[in-house]
Amino acid sequence: MEIDIIISDQPLDVQSCLNKVADNAAGGIDIFVGTVREWTRGRKVVRLEFEAYEKMAVQEMRKIAEKAVDEYELCKMAIYHRVGRLDIGEIPVIIAASAPHRGAAFEACRYAIDTLKETVPIWKKEIFSDGEVWVSATP
Fold first, then answer.
1. pLDDT digits (tens, 9 = 90+) for 55-86
2. Regions of the chain with pLDDT less than 50
3. Which of 20, 44, 100, 117 sits in a 20 to 30 Å window from 29, CA-based?
4. Nearest C-alpha neighbor of 28 from the set 67, 80, 74
């Protein structure tokens, strides 16, 4: 099983993630790309700041990927997460999965992002035009 996990303070590259999961056995690749949006719950976002307990976050992300590879019979999976300051339009997370059939790749990406938001020790600070608040990575 091939899994690639990255936590980085540098911009994430969708093509690099796609290249990591490319596989001749795959009939489909699904990629989820999370982006920093301009409005959250009716408040104007200026930027986000992400922090992670990196060692534990990598372990948890790997567990998510391993379960997804087994459960959805994936060829490969990659989970990338950014830390630090991110402006509107930047990418905080990329999840990619390749599988013999597209449905499995779609479901694996959904499972991975939903589980990541629930279990991985990554926190974000939302900086609004009228204040700021620390929240978990879940919405």
1. 999 999 999 999 999 999 999 999 999 999 99
2. 138-139
3. 117
4. 74
Count: domains in the chain: 1
What are residue 132's phi and psi, to 5 degrees? Answer: -150, 160
Q: What is the pTM of this model?
A: 0.94
Q: Is 23 left (phi over 0), alpha (psi -120 to 50) or beta?
A: beta
* Structural domain for 129, as ranges: 2-136
CA of 51: how far to CAs of 57, 126, 134, in Å?
Answer: 10, 12, 10
Q: Which of 20, 29, 16, 28 is nearest to 1 (CA)?
A: 20
Residues in the chain: 139
Count of CB atoms within 10 A of residue 114's CB?
12
CATH number at residue 41: 3.90.1170.40
